[in-house]
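Extended Data, panel c. Modelled sequence:
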Amino acid sequence: MELKELYQEIILDHGKSPRNKGKCDEYSHDAQAHNPLCGDKVHVYLRLDSEKKVMDISFEGEGCAISLASASILTETLKGKDLSFTKKVSEDFLSMVKNKTKITINSLTEDQITTITSLSGVQQFPMRVKCATMVWHTFLSALDKKN
């Protein structure tokens, strides 16, 4: 299987069966965003513990396959991780999509890197970049807000 086909398969899988969709219990932080140009909407919920570790993370929303896949990938990648890690992964992701850089975090597994990198193809379609990045920006906003 070619890498492009693998990436398409990952996006379709996450888009059709998003992980962590719904409101998590006892969330401590949340944020929402809406892209009026395409109609994508997302609401991110997270629960941090006293050591600032993401104990639970989920989302509600609607949108295209890329938007839903990105939200699913974000929640699956960041659940259970500490804040410094989540911020670094978020920065790496946003840089990858916007500046065509590579993911640099060493503590991600090969599967996680492949899954995150599956969204790099949106670089070729400027109108789709917002679809992939909106949930990541919303996650970072949620970190700054308490419920």
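Residues 90 and 136 are 6 Å apart (CA to CA). This feature is highlighted in the accompanying rendering.
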